Amino acid sequence: MINLIPYTTPRIPFLVRCFSTSPIPRNVITLKNINPTSSDLPLPLSELELEPETKPTIDDSAYGLTDDEVSLIVKSPFLESISVPDIQTKALPEPIKSLTPYIPLNSGFLSTNRYPDAPSPFAKYTAPQDTPSLITGRRDISNFPRLSVTRLLTKSWCELRTFYETYSAYVPPETAAMVRGNATHSSLELETHPLIDTSEIIAALPAFEMTKGDKFAERIKEDCVRLIALLKNGVAREVYVHGYIDENGLVRGRDARQDDVIVTGIIDCLILRCKDPLRPIQSQLEEVETVEEFCDVAEKLIDKYSDLYVLDICDVKTRRWKKIPVQESVVDGSKKQVMVYDAMVEVMGESELRSLQFWEEYCRRMGVDIDEPISPELTLTWMGMQDIFTSSLATLRDIGSSSSLGASPYDISTVLINDPEFAEQIGSSLTTWVQPPTPRYFINILSRLFSLLSKFTHGDLRIQYYCRNEMFKELRFKPDSDTVDEVCTEALSFWRGTRPPKLMDRTYSNLRSKCSYCDFADYCSWKRDTEEQYNRDSIIQ
């Protein structure tokens, strides 16, 4: 009886097999007789020495390839059609292909660092976007280079993925989870800050295009309204903040410099807690008529009752299921995010003069003239909204303010109103104003409001987890200024390209939970190396 015992060669990568000129290993079948007859018995030693044992084998020499044959195969149209350059570029999906000018592609896998002459991640991130197919949903920030607070948290998921996303300019499509999250945030915001319907006002005014200064002033005005609501009602949502970072961390105690990087963020929720159920500050702020009067009264009340109040900073996270993230890095990143918000609120309240300087530098980079008058149509829209700013704007119209000296005439008497009723309502504003409203006017008020908040002790930092518009979990923790500076310096070194991306620990948990949701996973050298490591370990075990 003869058994066939296969000899299995090691697996050889496809490209090596195709392009190597060495003989191609193949399975060799050895025939072994396992039922010896008498003629198969061992020979005497002398005969064994003279006649070596031979085993019947299949001779494969006839199947070997000559050098000419190998050359013909390598140069065949089939192999030329899948040559290495095509595998490395042409056959790649667009987001991966767009990385190749900046990040080496080795054997079809992306390197974990960029080419030495490639721009830094920040330079690439803030460069003009000229590839529309790659930037759907991404804002071009080349005219105002900056980072968001969430962009500082490069290690909360996978810094290498952030690295690849930055150089590819690829934005994943909006997911159902993102839609649900936006809906929850909007719902909470509208509960706290109901919208004022301005459709009839806009219809009554001539159509106009808002300037960059108009848009900026409207956002700052809305921030003022929300901080006023915080002092009156104890809650404010979606508050815009900004700050600067350098190689030492978050900039504190000095003016902003040209080489500092702007960081912006939107705080989900500010909560002003009071030990006294009567809330003495809020109860005495109801009757004020102008923003200036509000700030004056609030300052006196805060000086008197600030020890009864604590200011909490809160971030809202939405989840599909009533479970917080299992990845420790994600929860840790969320905590660091709130710590940065907390520190930015403190810095914006350090002093009104420094806050003003921060805004001046911010607007200089944005290209906003903070002393340019607001468009008359927008001013009249605000006058028709009948909020706390209506009386303040009327004061600018009739009397001006301490900064009105030298102000240019602001004649809005010629604006045509399409609705007689609205024209009657704002008729007194259709005149030449003593002082025009400007972005600087609103910046001054916002700086003062943040200065008032600085008088309160900062309490807990919170992360609130929501599922289907219901909060199911709240984490509370304390701020840590050292952690904030560490986050800022580490992020800045990444974005400026002074260090390569930090790779995740090679754990099965990271491989399973994070790589499964990554658009670069099939081309990621970290994933490949980690899988190979686990394969080797499993073989050894």
Overview of this protein structure:
It comes from Cyberlindnera fabianii. One of its GO terms (cellular component) is mitochondrion. This protein is an alpha+beta fold and 541 residues long. It has 3 domains: 2-79, no CATH class; 84-171 and 499-540, no CATH class; 225-370 and 438-498, no CATH class. Helix content is 43%, strand content 15%. The chain has 23 helices and 13 strands. It has helices at residues 14-19, 45-50, 67-74, 77-81, 84-90, 94-97, 121-125, 149-152, 159-168, 176-192, 199-204, 212-233, 280-283, 291-305, 328-348, 352-366, 376-385, 388-398, 420-425, 439-453, 481-495, 508-513, 525-540; strands at residues 2-7, 28-33, 105-106, 109-110, 147-148, 235-246, 249-250, 261-274, 309-318, 410-411, 432-433, 457-467, 470-477. Strands 5, 6, 7, 8, 9, 12 and 13 form a 7-stranded mixed β-sheet that branches. Strands 1-2 form a two-stranded antiparallel sheet. Strand 12 and strand 13 (470-477) form a beta hairpin. The longest helix has 22 residues, at 212-233. The protein is globular, with a radius of gyration of 35 Å. The two termini are 36 Å apart. The relative contact order is 0.13. Residues 1-62, 82-87 and 132-137 have low confidence and may be disordered.
Task: State the separation between the terminal residues, measured CA to CA.
Answer: 36 Å
Computed Rg? 35 Å
Low-pLDDT runs: 1-62, 82-87, 132-137
| Domain unit count | 3
- Count the helices. How many? 23
Helicity level: 40-55%
What fraction of the residues are assigned to beta strands by DSSP?
Answer: 5-15%
Mean pLDDT: 85
**Major sheet characteristics:** 7 strands, mixed
Shape call: globular
Question: Which structural category do the helix and sheet elements fall into?
Answer: alpha+beta
Total beta-strand segments: 13
Organism: Cyberlindnera fabianii (Yeast)
GO biological process, one term: interstrand cross-link repair
InterPro entries: EXOV
Subunit structure: Monomer.
